[in-house]
Amino acid sequence: MLFSFSLQNLDAxxxxxxxxxxxxxxxxxxxxxxxxxxxxxxxxxxSILLHITDVIQPNFGAxxxxxxxxxxxxxxxxxxxxxxxxxxxxxxxxxTQLNPKEYRTNQELELERKKSIRKVxxxxxxxxxxxxxSELQKKNVTVIYATLNGVNDQPPQKxxxxxxxxxxxxxxxxYLSRILSIPEGIGKICTIHGISIKDAFEFQPGYLYVVVPNxxxxxxxxxxxxxxxxxxxxNRMKMIKxxxxxxFDSRVVQGFxxxxxxx
Length: 263
Prior knowledge:
Doublecortin_dom, alpha+beta, disordered C terminus, Doublecortin_dom_sf, elongated, single chain, 6 helices, five-stranded mixed beta sheet, Doublecortin domain-containing protein, four-stranded mixed beta sheet, Ubiquitin-like (UB roll)
């Protein structure tokens, strides 16, 4: 359906004084832009459309009309805008067949993504008490441990992700390849049982994960035993630094690096 552009009085003064928050997309671009429109700053509907155009800068040029995603009807003036509603910007002559599922905010996309995430078992939580999880939630971070496939003399690495990292899987992959010294790149990340992790939201706080390099198969190793040995070494090193123990049992280190593959 096409609307007649001539019916719209773009330069009519605004009647309302209350500011409104709206979300705007343009046809073909699924990036959401949030605006707070204050009538004290914009005296006419035309000035509002020009401001939205300046921020979004659509390929088709100036935005001359807004279509409500909820009602699929054109908004003719500021009075017709609804607080926190969604709108699609068009040029002077555009069709209005819209699919609401194509225009979602980042929060809506993240919520839907989390709903589709599999719950995978990754081994006992070494820090899995409710107090630890609660502290992570307050700080908006997740702590996991990552170890190299098959393990060598490199200890597991503690990794801290914030909520922004979770939206970029490639950042996580590149970071893990760097701290675990994997120049050939990472093929996949698995639980200790070999189940592939497809998304960062599958990571569970305090769990151990196995990083498999490119062109390698997952190797079945007693990863938890290795991790427990690593934690034993860490604890003993802390005791030495605090003066609680003068000697360090080298057999613990040897046991850590000589764990054999298991069938």
